[in-house]
């Protein structure tokens, strides 16, 4: 599945050029290319903010109406502050995580629709969305900046799309193997004549570094193989 041919971002009459540019940059980070903007034309400020995502702005499609922009999509996912009450919000919201886990990456054409910075999406536009995505925030101030909202939703997408490249918890070495690795390193330090107090300091430091590294099982066996060869060479040299 090629997400750049299936997932599009639609900005409805954005007011601030900086936001438009930041959205393009987030899209480039996420591997998306199809940006659709209703009425607002990106200018030099947007190009500057887009950084290496400026090619997305150069190829952005500009539409005059909401109906034209959403044409041809299977899923039209609107984002809005559904924490407010009133008839304006006519869909039950789902979280970004739930949306991508269950609907967004099923091979259908998806439009992610983001409303105006000041007024969001109008009732007529909300009625044309078949999903709502809500980002949880501080109840006292739950409204996110446009470009930040786009970045959050796209991040949840790429976590799932590229998950085969992410280290899962089950792949990280066990505490038993971590102890084996640390004992081998400690033994190596004794072979090269480190003093006891030096070894204690280094082992404390290395334990923190290796813990943060989240070494996988396959990496563990490769490192152990390297240590084994070094230790064997040193032991053989000692016996000569």
Structure explained in plain terms:
Pfam families: SpoU_methylase. With 240 residues, the chain is α/β, with parallel strands linked by helices. 49% of the residues lie in helices and 12% in strands. The protein contains 10 helices and 7 strands. The chain has a 7-stranded parallel beta sheet with strand order 3-2-1-6-4-7-5. Helix 1 (17-30) runs parallel beside helix 2 (44-50), helix 1 runs parallel beside helix 7 (146-161) and helix 8 (175-191) runs parallel beside helix 10. The termini are far apart.
Q: Give the overall form.
A: elongated
Beta-sheet strand percentage?
5-15%
Averaging pLDDT over every residue, what do you get?
87
Helix count, per DSSP? Answer: 10
CATH architecture of the largest domain, please? 3-Layer(aba) Sandwich
Describe this structure in a few short sentences.
By secondary structure, the chain is of the alpha/beta class. Helices cover about 50% and strands about 10% of the residues. The protein has two domains: about 160 residues, 3-Layer(aba) Sandwich (Alpha/beta knot), CATH 3.40.1280; about 70 residues.
Q: How would you describe this structure in keywords?
A:
single chain; 240 residues; alpha/beta; Alpha/beta knot; 2 domains; seven-stranded parallel β-sheet; 10 helices; elongated; rRNA methyltransferase
Write the layout of secondary structure elements.
Blueprint: E1 7-12, H1 17-30, E2 35-38, H2 44-50, H3 54-58, E3 61-63, H4 66-69, E4 75-79, E5 93-94, H5 96-104, E6 110-114, H6 123-126, E7 131-133, H7 146-161, H8 175-191, H9 196-213, H10 217-239
Parallel strand pairs: 1-2, 1-6, 2-3, 4-6, 4-7, 5-7
């Amino acid at each position: 599945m090629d997400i750049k041919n299936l997932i599009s971002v639609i900005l409805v009459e954005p007011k601030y050029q900086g936001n438009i540019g930041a959205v393009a940059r987030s899209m480039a980070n996420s591997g998306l290319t199809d940006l659709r903007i209703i009425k607002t034309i990106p200018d030099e400020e947007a190009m500057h903010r887009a950084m290496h995502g400026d090619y997305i702005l150069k190829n952005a499609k500009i539409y005059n109406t909401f109906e034209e922009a959403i044409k041809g999509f299977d899923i039209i996912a609107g984002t809005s502050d559904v924490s407010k009450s009133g008839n304006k919000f006519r869909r039950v919201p789902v979280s970004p995580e739930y949306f991508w886990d269950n609907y967004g990456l099923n091979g259908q054409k998806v439009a992610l629709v983001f409303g105006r910075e000041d007024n969001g999406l109008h009732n007529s536009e909300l009625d044309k969305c078949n999903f709502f995505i809500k980002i949880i925030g501080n109840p006292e101030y739950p409204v996110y900046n446009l470009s930040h909202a786009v970045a959050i939703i796209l991040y949840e997408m790429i976590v799932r799309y590229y998950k085969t490249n992410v280290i899962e918890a089950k792949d990280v070495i066990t505490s038993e193997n971590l102890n084996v690795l640390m004992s081998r390193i400690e033994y190596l330090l004794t072979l090269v004549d480190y003093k006891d107090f030096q070894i204690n300091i280094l082992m404390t430091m290395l334990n923190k570094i290796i813990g943060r590294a989240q070494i996988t099982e396959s990496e563990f066996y490769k490192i152990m193989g390297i240590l084994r060869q070094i230790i064997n060479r040193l032991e053989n040299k000692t016996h000569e």
